[in-house]
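Below is a filled-in request sheet from our internal design queue. Each sheet records the structural input a requester submitted and the sequence that came back. We keep these sheets so that new team members can see what a complete request looks like end to end.

REQUESTER: design group, bay 2
PRIORITY: normal
MODE: inverse folding
CHAIN LENGTH: 282
BACKBONE (tokenized):
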């Protein structure tokens, strides 16, 4: 049985708006002051992880549910006007700097390691980026890149490199946590156990991301790679190498879900699972 201690890693899956489950889990952790010294997160997990690292309970919930209800920041009009189906001006400028202020001071004084996963469009591989020097713009750019879904988001440039959603290549970065010296991990998934993507991978036409052939290759194997990671996670869980916190039933929330009631239910399920974990392992 895993003993949760100072060397245990925390791995946060993405999943778009399914990430409200993770918001709930992390709020339960913060309620009980349960913090990890190493956190690696991807896409929506990176967005939620920022508020966890800045020690701001319910901030992610307010951002994902209350602000969505108020500002309707998902839609084709944002794709047309700003090149992203999620309103980037609201999410990565007004929200952290004005509407739901992000505590940069607490984040940058936090000595724990927080890595966010991006996909490097040039190499077609994962990059694992962190920002602790105090550069606010770079921190938000990394988070934005990690969450930039292909086809419906602009490429984000970080350190002069073109980046997209980290989930293209590494949706559940538990292997990264192990490589970084954390053999035992708590993994927050946003799908129920047994879920597999039943879609089919297809070769990406050359005119799509024509400047980035290795990105096209990665996109052509995306479903296969994700299902392989799901199998790996379940195997590691059965072997007692990781603890998984996940929804207990099939998730009805979509990647770009706008139904606030569905989001609220999934958040509450995440909070309950977080409380259950704290009671069992704290």
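RETURNED SEQUENCE:
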């Amino acid at each position: 049985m895993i003993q949760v201690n100072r060397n245990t890693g925390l791995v946060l899956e993405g999943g778009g708006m399914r990430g409200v489950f993770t918001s709930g889990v992390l709020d339960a952790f913060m309620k009980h002051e349960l913090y990890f010294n190493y956190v690696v997160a991807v896409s929506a997990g990176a967005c939620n992880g920022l508020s966890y690292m800045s020690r701001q309970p319910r901030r992610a919930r307010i951002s994902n549910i209350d602000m969505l209800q108020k500002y309707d920041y998902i839609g084709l009009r944002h794709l047309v006007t700003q090149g992203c189906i999620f309103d980037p001006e609201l999410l990565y400028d007004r929200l952290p700097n004005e509407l739901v202020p992000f505590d940069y001071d607490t984040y940058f004084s936090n000595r724990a390691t927080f890595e966010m996963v991006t996909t490097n469009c040039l190499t077609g591989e994962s990059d694992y980026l962190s920002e602790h020097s105090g550069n606010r713009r770079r921190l938000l750019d990394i988070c934005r890149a990690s969450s930039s879904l292909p086809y419906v988001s602009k490429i984000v440039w970080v350190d002069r490199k073109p980046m997209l959603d980290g989930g293209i290549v590494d949706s559940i970065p538990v292997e990264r946590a192990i490589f970084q010296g954390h053999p035992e991990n708590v993994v927050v998934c946003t799908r129920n156990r047994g879920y597999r993507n039943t879609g089919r991978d297809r070769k990406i036409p050359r005119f799509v991301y024509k400047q980035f052939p290795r990105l096209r290759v990665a996109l052509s194997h995306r479903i296969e790679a994700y299902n392989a990671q799901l199998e790996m996670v379940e195997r590691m869980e059965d072997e007692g190498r990781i603890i998984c916190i996940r929804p207990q039933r099939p998730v009805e929330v979509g990647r770009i879900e706008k139904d606030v009631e569905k989001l609220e239910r999934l958040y509450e399920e995440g909070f309950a699972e977080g409380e259950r974990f704290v009671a069992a392992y704290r």
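SHEET NOTES:
- DSSP finds eleven helices and eight strands in the chain.
- The two ends are 13 Å apart (CA to CA).
FILED BY: M.R.
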